[in-house]
Amino acid sequence: MFLVLAAALAGAGLALLLRGGTLGLPSDLRAQPVLALGLAAIVLAEWVPGIPGKPGIYIVGTALLAGGLLQNLHFSGAFVTSLGLLLTGFVVLINGYLPLRAEAAEATNIEATGLRQMEDEETRLGILGDVVPLPIGPWVVSFGDLIAAAGAFILGRELLAQRAEEGLDADEFLEEFLRADRSVDLTTPPVVIDLTDNTAESVPPPPLENDRYL
Predict the structure, then answer these.
(1) What tens digit of pLDDT does each residue of 45-95 get?
(2) Which helix (H) or strand (E) holds 142?
(3) Is the pTM of this model over 0.90?
(4) Distance between alpha carbon 152 and the CA centroid of its chain, in Å?
(5) What percent of the chain has pLDDT over 70?
(6) Fewer CB in 10 Å around end: N or C, the chain?
(7) What are the strands of the beta sheet with 116-118, ordered from one edge?
(8) Where are the domains of the chain?
(9) DSSP 8-state assignment for residue 198
(10) 135 or 208: which carries more pLDDT confidence?
(11) Alpha-carbon distance 196 to 198, whole Å?
(12) Are 181 and 35 a contacting pair, CB within 8 Å?
């Protein structure tokens, strides 16, 4: 799963570099809680040691994540990512573990622990397990991981590019501001409000003291 996550981040970073915008998910991304729960379950099964029932957790997480992606086929890369995830999840389902080929383990000097177990003569469809050693770092991945990583790169770029199109960046905001019509019509006379009360009767002033002798 690390390769899939790295590919998605690389695609998102490329979209930010080329298109600009801000980090965030587009508004039309569906089943976000399902996607988050599925991703968390896969990460828990692969990376957290000492968790019982890792194959079951991995299968459930794969089903949730792939199912959530299949609800977002309007994004490029969603189908390819789900296909790769399902291939790896299927080999875990039929074997009860993720097969690790001995040659790949020796080439990268890693051991079969947790979800992984060494491939043997009873392993079914071992070709779908971890059989591809990566040239960088002690990592072995499956063909499903490679397919999912290719789709995740496209999907990450698509999601961030869509996010950039939903909002205006600084340059677009300045352009819209400069094109705005801010003219004021000076021919219209101002509105004058008369606050005097013309309905009240005028009251004569009181007589002065000397007026009594006139």
Answers:
(1) 999 998 999 999 999 999 999 999 999 999 999 999 999 999 999 999 999
(2) strand 140-142
(3) no
(4) 11
(5) 73
(6) C
(7) 116-118, 98-100, 130-133, 140-142
(8) 2-166
(9) S
(10) 135
(11) 6
(12) no
Cβ-proximal residues to 3 (8 Å cutoff; 6+ apart), any chain: 134, 139, 141, 145, 146, 148, 149
- 141 sits in which H/E element: strand 140-142
Contact assessment for residue 151 and residue 141, using Cβ atoms and an 8 Å cutoff: no
| Cβ proximity of 113 and 45 under 8 Å | no
Average pLDDT, the chain: 83
**Residue listed under structure tokens 């340059």:** 171
The share of the chain scoring above pLDDT 90, in percent, equals 60
DSSP-derived letter for residue 205 is P
Token representation of residue 131: 């059989």
Query: pLDDT tens, 92-113?
Result: 999 999 999 999 999 999 999 8
Rounded-to-integer distance, Cα 92 and Cα 100, Å = 11
C-alpha dihedral over 133, 136, 137, 143, to 10 degrees? -30
| Amino acid at residue number 198 | N
Q: Are 116 and 100 in contact (CB under 8 A)?
A: yes
Cα dihedral sign, 44-45-50-53: positive
Phi, psi of 140 (to 5 degrees): -125, 130
